[in-house]
Write a structure and sequence with these properties.
414 residues; 2 domains; 5-stranded mixed beta sheet; elongated; binds histidyl-adenosine monophosphate
Length: 414
């Protein structure tokens, strides 16, 4: 029954089995965040393009190549959000959240859009859960954010997860380091890939991410910022590490860790799952002490992360648990349809998962349908007001008293 219409390239339909697995992830995340005092927030699926140009950075791949940008009917440039941090900082400023107790701790889940080359684990519409702690520069916030992502992945049972940790230093330290890195790249221009060579001035850090062999050999001897951290930056990073050690969180320092967004300062981190292949990062983030100022606000340090729901699902390799179905209500006689619907509603109010035949099948058809949808018991309503309870596995059937239906169906729940 295929139609000529299909979900657009790089997007997908979320069918019920996967939808249940996703709901489990989002539910686990919301519970973990709430226990740590993070509050839910939701921002629009699109924003003014300039927010991302300024926030994410004009030199990033996201802004240069991957945004779904269009003009609305009023001639304004609009972009489907490629990420959630810049919009949340916009909301923080717009709603005067700096007047609230700091840090403001927020979490979110929803769809994001990037015009990337689709492959396993990389889509044009994907979903993230994430959190942000805005208004503190304490390393405690960095460590807590990392611990909460570690908790989430552990609770979900994501196998083979490793944490990579790095630091970019403060904005000034980062600037000084970038000059040094650019000099190194310029001195070795001839060995670099064309792409990296062209971006020495706009985004030298991305050279660490290159698959090109020549570039990789140049980068093997490149200065790294972790070795160059000084003063407060070095102390901040050491404290984050000490806090993670004390919490028993294993990590590996990765001096070449870079991220695809320009706003990071100091701590950056990435949780990777080796089983995932090329798109191995399930979640990551870091500190972004300059972003709110960049968007026109007062200096406001912050830290956060986002995890990809599709990547978590791939790593788990699972579909959702089968839906609970306590009983199916069938009718042995057409006069019982009304009673079935009213009784189903009553049993649902009592917390049971109960379905009725919505297609007006014969009794035989109803039993077949109940079997197909995996109902373990069928309650058959009879014309005289009586009822029979049928166990679908054994085929055993026995009369039940109308007054004892709740107990019979609820009590026998597996
Ligand atoms: P990001 O590293 O760009 O960070 O994305 C976070 C996560 O989203 C990735 O680790 C990955 O799991 C998932 N992801 C990214 N792109 C795709 C895609 N095309 N298809 C499927 N999954 C994808 C951010 O977005 C930052 N806003 C994180 C953050 C929050 N930093 C501070 N606060």
């Amino acid at each position: 029954m295929a139609s000529k219409y299909q979900a657009p390239r790089g997007t997908f339909d979320v069918l019920p089995d996967t939808a249940r697995a996703r709901a489990r992830i989002e539910g686990a995340a919301a519970a973990i965040f709430a226990r740590a005092g993070y509050e839910p927030i939701s921002t629009p699926a699109f924003e003014d393009t300039e927010l991302f140009e300024r926030g994410v950075g004009r030199s990033t791949d996201i802004v240069r190549k991957e945004m779904f940008t269009f003009e609305d009917k009023g001639g304004r440039s609009i972009t489907l959000r490629p990420e959630g941090t810049a919009p949340i900082c916009r909301a923080y400023l717009e709603h005067g959240m700096h007047k609230l107790a700091q840090p403001v701790k927020l979490f979110y889940a929803g769809p994001f859009f990037r015009h990337e080359r689709p492959q396993a684990g990389r889509y044009r519409q994907f979903h993230q859960v994430g959190l942000e702690a805005i208004g503190t520069d304490s390393p405690l916030a960095d460590a807590e954010a990392i611990m909460l992502l570690a908790d989430l992945l552990a609770e979900l049972g994501v196998p083979g997860v490793e944490l990579r940790l790095g630091s970019l230093g403060s904005l000034e330290a980062r600037r000084a380091y970038l000059e040094e890195l650019k000099s190194h790249l310029r001195a070795n221009q001839g060995d670099l890939s064309k792409d990296v060579r062209e971006r020495i001035d706009i985004n030298p850090l991305r050279a660490f991410d290159s698959d090109d062999e020549g570039t990789q050999s140049v980068m093997a001897s490149a200065p790294t910022i972790v070795e160059h951290l000084e003063g407060d930056d070095a102390e901040h990073f050491a404290t984050v590490r000490g806090l993670l050690d004390a919490a028993g969180i294993a990590y590996e320092i990765d001096p070449t860790l870079v991220r695809g967004l320009d706003y990071y300062t100091r701590t950056i981190f990435s949780f990777v799952c080796e089983g995932l292949g090329a798109q191995s990062e399930v979640g990551g983030g870091g500190r972004y002490d300059g972003l709110i100022e960049q968007l026109g606000g007062p200096p406001t340090p912050a830290v956060g992360w986002a995890a990809g729901i599709e990547r978590i699902l791939l790593a788990l390799g699972e579909e959702g648990e089968a839906p609970r179905r306590d009983a199916f209500l069938a009718v042995a006689d057409e006069t019982q349809r009304q009673r079935a619907l009213a009784l189903a509603s009553e049993l649902r109010h009592a917390g049971l998962a109960v379905e009725v035949d919505l297609a007006e099948r014969s009794l035989k058809g109803q039993l077949k349908h109940a079997d197909r949808i995996g109902a373990r018991r069928v309650l058959i309503l009879e014309a005289d007001g009586g009822a029979q309870l049928r166990d679908m596995k054994s085929g055993e059937q026995r009369p039940v008293e109308p007054g004892r239906l709740l107990e019979e169906i609820g009590g026998a729940r597996p």
